């Protein structure tokens, strides 16, 4: 693409790449001098030119000492990058119906359900914490919400592959860093707002304002879908220029659930919308998943799907990997793997476990807390587990350069009465839970979901994933032990 097509009054030189990291070797590229939390791109202009930049976009005065380079000064480099990236990749989000999902918990579940339920009707991609998926392509995740350039490139690839829609997880940090400013969101969904990312945002008010950006920036002909039962649900859409649609259980809403029956293997309720009532049965379980499902129904129906067409698919919703994933290998106790990593997320899982576990049986939890992230929630995790669990096994969870044992001790500070042990190795912690479980118990493996890596001091280290670790431990240490015991009895 010609530089003149990206900037007014620019020469007709060919641009092949967009560069934000001066260390990347990208010939015929534009280098954007982004100011990050640690590094300022203005300091690395010469390195960028050496690695292929033929144009430099900057906001501060810099030395223009290379006659072969075009220098363009702008007021806001990030805003310029958003505009240029969208144009460079052909405005891909305008070619699809984009469902943007934000909130503390539920983003992945809602976005994946939108894709799974929409795909039989017309092709839908997914970008989020679990993966990047479209058509037959499945790629590992980048960030929950990728950075500006890779996000536009992924959307371009989806459009090229024939996707007509995209379900996009939009994080508060992604919004704060303007990663989605040039994404044309058609339907924005708010799930809930509870304690998370305060290490980055500082206060709940700042966290709320970051989320609110999505709805403040929504186009007038878009749709905002919000959880009316959440304390922040109506405030977050207070200044939204788009049409607002609500969902909920406790208050009257545009999409409302009543006569709710929560079971261990299914949920039954009546959906109330626009004066009509619809009987619903779904294989999803737990109250928080009911809220997720209401958001999905609202989004898909507002996007044009008839309610009857949506509801007929709800009894066989595909299992979302690492999200309330039941591990069934023939063992006589429950095992659930979930991504829960916030106080509210943990409490919702604990409440569900309490509902499905007989009074005389135990709830065994295995979890930790991420290093270099929101340390204030660690003792809160301990308090919540202390309230609901009968055995707590604390272990590593993305420790980065912190000591996993020290993190576990900080969680344990909130535990007053429940038996707890610390096992640093995540696999050994899962193995221990499997080995001590009795018939009818419930094991909760929390925090990592289906992630196949653990962040350590040096970066990502491969991890077999929690579901794989559970199945491996069952096979090696539960069923094998049973067989050995039977052999000894026969003898």
Automatic annotation (TrEMBL):
What InterPro entries does the record tag this protein with? Mur-like_cat_sf, Mur_ligase_C, Mur_ligase_C_dom_sf, Mur_ligase_cen, Mur_ligase_N, MurE/MurF_N, UDP-N-AcMur-Glu-dNH2Pim_ligase
Q: Which residues bind ATP?
A: 103-109
Post-translational modification N6-carboxylysine, affected residues: 211
One GO biological process term: peptidoglycan biosynthetic process
Q: What does this protein do?
A: Catalyzes the addition of an amino acid to the nucleotide precursor UDP-N-acetylmuramoyl-L-alanyl-D-glutamate (UMAG) in the biosynthesis of bacterial cell-wall peptidoglycan.
The record's keywords, sorted A to Z, are: ATP-binding, Cell cycle, Cell division, Cell shape, Cell wall biogenesis/degradation, Cytoplasm, Ligase, Magnesium, Nucleotide-binding, Peptidoglycan synthesis
The segment(s) forming the Mur ligase central domain are 101-299
Recorded GO CC terms: cytoplasm
PTM comment: Carboxylation is probably crucial for Mg(2+) binding and, consequently, for the gamma-phosphate positioning of ATP.
Entry similarity comment? Belongs to the MurCDEF family. MurE subfamily.
Q: Which domain of life is it from?
A: Bacteria
Q: Where in the cell is it found?
A: Cytoplasm
Q: Where does UDP-N-acetyl-alpha-D-muramoyl-L-alanyl-D-glutamate bind?
A: 22, 144-145, 171, 177, 179
Q: Which residues form the Mur ligase C-terminal domain?
A: 322-449
What this protein needs as a cofactor is:
Mg(2+)
Q: Which residues form the signal peptide?
A: none
Q: In which pathway does it act?
A: Cell wall biogenesis; peptidoglycan biosynthesis
Q: Which GO terms describe its molecular function?
A: acid-amino acid ligase activity; ATP binding; magnesium ion binding
Q: What is its EC number?
A: 6.3.2.-
Domain (Mur ligase N-terminal catalytic) ranges = 14-89
- Enzyme class, top EC level, equals ligase
Ranges in a coiled coil: none
Organism equals Holdemania filiformis DSM 12042
The name this protein carries in UniProt is UDP-N-acetylmuramyl-tripeptide synthetase
